[in-house]
Design a protein that fits this description.
Blueprint: H1 7-32, H2 38-60, H3 70-93, H4 96-104, H5 110-118, H6 124-140, H7 149-176, H8 182-201, H9 210-234, H10 239-242, H11 248-261, H12 267-286
Helix pairs in contact: 1-9, 1-11, 2-3, 2-8, 2-9, 3-4, 3-7, 3-8, 4-7, 4-11, 6-12
Length: about 300
């Protein structure tokens, strides 16, 4: 049956499953955060990812992972780990769908940041789309009536920091893609990420119960597997044809939040989610070349 599907259909299914896995990982991140610090969760996620990547390294050989872009890999890792830290912290304090939205709003700002950092040409539409995206973020995040407004705005800054770092990481990945294969970029991210986060946890306790270890390891396993399906999905078709499927993560996360924690966004928040989604789709389509239907990158 799989062989009879079109390339676009295969890509959509891979991204839909990756979205389900990312949302599921969010549940485990929140559960693990009840027993471990954000530093622990981020460190163990990277270590598990590195261990899962080891067989691939042995198969390809060390020579395949030599690079002439060490500083760019370092910058990509710093921005990626910063985004991951803020994202994991946000999952423990925001609703699941809100935390997911911060990451998925990042592509909206990539063209604007690319203009300033890489001198890429953009038109006025990119700024309009970015404005729509940021408006969606502010609509989606409403402070609780009577709640601590200072605490809310502090959390909002953490969420926006996650969005900014994610966008910068995307720019680094795009720059690296000109000379580096995807597996090399992933390898250095997990390696450097493991080293960087080690310094955040080396003096902290690791005396977790079997259940707590299971939750922490599950975060690494599920997020790494989700990344595999995400990468595989984009190997079948251009992003403009399939990328909207990745926003199912917010839908799945919203369902999990309602099912396990009785989280329910109001109508204003839903409008914000829609604005972010529309802005992101417009960005993807504006930056995707045309490609014949049914053509696969694997052909």
């Amino acid at each position: 049956m799989w062989q009879h599907l079109s390339a676009v259909s295969k890509g959509l299914l891979c991204l839909a499953f990756a979205s389900f896995l990312f949302a599921t990982a969010g549940v485990f991140i929140r559960l693990a955060s009840q027993y471990a610090s954000t530093e622990h969760v981020v460190f163990i996620r990277n270590i598990v990812g590195l261990l899962m990547f080891t067989p691939f390294i042995l198969k390809k050989g060390v020579a395949h992972f030599k690079t002439r872009q060490p500083l760019l890999h370092l910058l990509r890792s710093i921005t990626g780990i910063s985004a991951m830290y803020a994202f994991f912290y946000g999952i423990a304090h925001f609703s699941l769908s809100e935390a997911m939205m911060f990451v998925y709003a990042a592509p909206v700002f990539v063209p604007v940041l690319g203009h300033f950092l890489l001198k890429e040409r953009v038109n006025a539409h990119a700024y309009l789309i970015a404005f729509v995206g940021i408006s969606g973020v502010f609509l989606a995040l409403q402070p609780d009536q009577g709640g601590d407004k200072v605490a809310f705005h502090a959390m909002l800054l953490i969420g926006l920091f996650c969005t900014l770092m994610s966008a910068l990481a995307f720019i680094c990945i795009r720059k690296l893609s000109h000379t580096e294969p995807a597996e090399r970029t992933v390898f250095y991210f997990t390696l450097i990420g493991s080293v960087l986060t080690f310094f955040l946890v080396y003096d902290k306790r690791f005396s977790f119960s079997l259940l707590e270890w299971s939750l922490l390891i599950a975060v690494g396993l599920i997020t790494t597997l989700a990344q595999v399906f995400l990468t595989r999905g984009y190997s079948y078709a251009f992003a403009g044809k399939i990328a909207p499927a990745s926003y199912l993560t917010v839908v799945f996360a919203g369902f999990y939040g309602w099912l396990f924690w009785n989280e329910m966004p109001d109508s204003v928040s839903v409008c914000g989610y829609i604005l972010v989604f529309v802005a992101a789709v417009l960005v993807v389509k504006a930056n995707t070349p045309e490609k014949k239907t049914g053509e696969s990158f694997n052909d």
